[in-house]
Amino acid sequence: MKLQIKTPPWAEPLLDDAPYKAAYGGRGGGKSYFFAGLLVEEHLANPDQRTVCIRAVQNSITQSVKEVIEEMIYEYGVEDSFIINKTEILNKHGRGIIMFKGMQSYNASNIKSLQGCDRAWIEEAQDLSYVAWTYLDPTIRKEGSQIWASWNPENETDPIDVIFRKNPPTGTVIVNVNIHNNPWATEKNLQQMNDCMKRDMDEYRHIWLGEYKEMSEARVFKNWTVEEFETDKHAVLRFGADWGFATDPTCLIRGYVEGRNLYIDYEAYAIGCEIVDTPDLFMTVPEAEKWPIVADSARPETISHMKNHGFPKIMKAVKGAKSLEEGIEFLKSYDIIVHPRCKHVIDELTHYKYKVDPLTSAVTPVLEDKHNHLIDALRYALESIRRASKTKKKVQARPVRTRSGW
Predict the structure, then answer these.
(1) What confidence tens digit (pLDDT) does each residue in 155-214 have?
(2) pLDDT tens-digit profile of 8-27?
C-alpha cells in the first residue's frame, strides 16, 4: 500500500535516499510528526521493514514516540494495516515491526539484537551519549538501512551535535527547522512562543529557535523585552550609526527615551554595504534624513559622504576614555523595549556577553567584542544624554563655598 503524506518544504531533503537523516531545531517545528509519518508510509510500502525507535533513556513505553506513530496511523486511516500492542507495532501484511528501546539498557553485547533493523530513529537525540552512538552506528549496517535523528539542541558539546553538525558522517542529510517553518503549527504553540519571547529571550531562543543554552550570568543585558508598540509622535528621535563592510555590518538604529524606558523601533543592517549604497540603506529607517545621527568617529570619510548625500545632520561620536563601559552601564539603567521588526537588535541583546575565563568558567568584567554593532550604534545615539547626565552629576557633587569657608 502506497500512502502519500504531505511534506512541509523544510523536510523535502529528508525524502532523499540517505544513510543518515537528521533534523534539529526548536519546539513546534514538526520534526517528530514528520519522521513518524514517514515511518508509517515506509511500513505500508514495505510490510517487512524492521524499525527501532530509540531514546537515550526510556523507563517506560510512555516515554517513547509510540503515541506519535499511533496518531499518524489513525490520522492516515490505515489502522487496519497494523497491530498495535502495548510495547510494539506489528504489520498485518508482513513481518514488519516497530520497536521502542532505551539505549541506557544496551551495551556491546545485547545491541546485536538490532542488527537486522532497516531503520533506527533516535528521538530526543540531544540526550544520547557518545558511547551509545558507538554501539548503535555500526550495528545498523544492513544494506539500505538508515539512521534518523531528531532533537532540540542543548549544548554545543553534546555528542549528537558534534556528530551531525560539526563532522557529519558521509551521506548525511541534515536540516534545521523551527516553528516558523511549520505550515501546520497550532495557534496554541504560536501563542506559547510569543508569550515566551516577551517573558525571557534566552528561553525563547533556546526552546523555540533551537539555539544552544546560553550562560545567562555572562549576558550583558537582561533589562529588555520585545513588544509591539506605536511610536510616540511627539518623541525626540535618536539615531546612532556604526560602520562595517566585509564581515561587520553597516547599521543604523532609531529609538527614543520616555522616563526610564528606552524604545527601539527601527533598524537598518547590511554586511558588505558599499559606501555609495549606504545612503539608500539609511533611508529605510523613517525620518533618518531629518534628525541628527551620531556615528562612529572611526570613519570620517564615510561621515563626510553621508553628509553630502542626504544626511546633513550626521555627526561623529565623541567617545572618550571609558566611553564603552560607561555607555553600556548607561544603557543598562533603562528598561529597553524592542519592536519585533528589529531582529538584529534582538539578536545582539541576546548574545552580547562578558568574557568567560576558559580555565575557571568565571565571568569576567571584560566585554566581548562581538554581537555589538547595533549596541554600539545605540550607545552613540544616547551619547549626548549620557554626557549631559554625567556633567549634571559632577555639578551636583561640587562643594559650595560659603562665608565661613567650604
Answers:
(1) 887 889 989 998 899 999 999 999 999 988 999 999 999 888 887 877 888 899 998 876
(2) 999 999 999 999 999 999 99
Q: What is the CATH number of the domain that holds 267?
A: 3.30.420.280
Q: Residue 173 has which C-alpha cell?
A: 542529510
Does residue 242 fall inside a structural domain?
Answer: yes
Which domain CATH number covers 41? Answer: 3.40.50.300
Answer yes or no: are the C-beta atoms of 237 and 384 closer than 8 Å: no
pLDDT band at 217 (very low <50, low <70, confident <90, very high): confident
- 175/9 Cα distance (integer angstroms): 11
- Do both 167 and 234 map to the same domain? no
Amino acid at 15: L
Model pLDDT, residue 157 = 76
What is the pairing mode between strands 249-258 and 314-316? unpaired
Strand bridging mode 146-151 / 20-24: parallel
Q: Are residues 146 and 24 in the same domain?
A: yes
Structural domain that includes position 56 = 16-181
Burial class (CB in 10 A: 0-12, 13-18, 19+), 347: middle
- Residue 151's Cβ-side half-sphere holds a number of Cα atoms within 13 Å equal to 29
